[in-house]
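[Q] Does anyone have a clean structure-token version of this?
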Amino acid sequence: MATIKELKEQRNNALDKMDEIKLKVNANGIGTEARSLTEEETSEFRSLVNEVSAIDTQIEEIRNLKGNKVEERDMAEQNLVEQRSAIQSFIKNDKAGLEKRAQYVNTTQDGSVLIPEQIADEILRKMEETSPVFEQSRKYPSIEGTLKIAKENTDDQAGFVGENEEIPSIALKFGHVTLTQKRVGAAVTLTQQLLNDGAVDLLGYSADLLARRAARAVEKSIFKGEGGEKGFVGIFSDQVTDSGDLNKVKISASVTADELADITGAVNPAYLDGAAFYMSRELFNQIRKIKDGTGDFLLQARDVNGRIGQTILGFPVYISDVLTKEDGVLFGNIGNAYGVMIKKGFALKHVNGDTQQTLNGTQLLAFDGYMDGNVINPEALVIASTTAK
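[A] Here you go.
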């Protein structure tokens, strides 16, 4: 759909053509008519008039549509502000605004309070902002039961053949990965001193803290798969690295520029668009000192998804506190390589009536839900380490 700016340019072009036709029928170009329009000129002029009229209609429709969208967005934002205000009042046990709290706060059977889905979604968005690898992973919609994802696995190749020769068939061997339900959660305890401080945005503070804690747990599971049956299948887990499907490159303890180039070359070029480096802070601090043949640092500051970030050989670099120097360098396209299924029903619960909270004089905000993750395409990744085989 064309923008208003583009439509205005089209309108101006049409008006210029109309002016050209007018000049043709003027003897000296100053308005003295020398002849009438020809049939062809008349037809073209009418067509241009209709075109200008149609463009004006499109511009008006777009303006009206934008106005409606702005109004809808403002209403949604106002609704979210009211929800946050109501929940904040509930947490602080503010008696004023009781009716407003009743619109958004629902008590569950166990006595805890279920906070609206929009607030839980806000924490999920904050999780993605906190963890790039979680944000970039491929998300699958929630379904009943388990989700099986086909995983192609074949070494057969197509090729050129001569006359009367048999075309080699490609024997596709499809495996699959299964995503089930793994509970992910984080909780924060609010002290009475914090509750009494009217200047503190409790919901904003709690949402940020819960998002950071949950994001770290998810990122750790994506990379390492720690948690056993309770966690994801991690990229660096033995289940993945011992399978032989993952690309591996051996590098020296003091990583060189040539080795970094070899790492990017170990991934199928089809996956390079969207690929990135992932490493520990210790290894990042080591690599940032590497220079190329012209004496320039290999690590450059560039625009990465609308933000200023670090790049190596043109690929973004992300630091994770979950990774260690011994893990080496992970490079690849996470969006093609790793899948995460997020079950519906992520919820933020407020608990203040149980015995433990009453005795401690505290209140609890707990964020939990169900998700699972696994490597769905190991060919889009490469692990480079000193121990790679």
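[Q] Thanks! Anything notable?
[A] Residues 95-104 have pLDDT under 50 and may be disordered.
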